[in-house]
Amino acid sequence: MAKATLKPWRRESILVEIESTEPLTKEEEEEVSGGIRTAFAWILAGEPIPSLDEVKQAIQGSNPDLAKKITKLKYY
After folding, report:
1. Any bridge partners for residue 32, and if so which?
2. What are 33-53's pLDDT values in tens digits?
3. Among 19, 27, 33, 63, which is disulfide-ready with 72 (CB 3.0 to 4.6 Å)?
């Protein structure tokens, strides 16, 4: 297992810890950050933060192999 901490938004203080089956490249980290931002755009006010499955769904279309690599995520 490999871990990475991402900051999907430059102006927000939200950090996301990602666990994956192998280390992510910088490009993959950017794709995951984009998937997190996309999943957040899908939720409505009052709904919980996006789950791992929702983030994986956001990534699935552009990079299914990357979506399979991600095993956990945690928001800070």
Report:
1. none
2. 999 999 999 998 889 999 999
3. 19
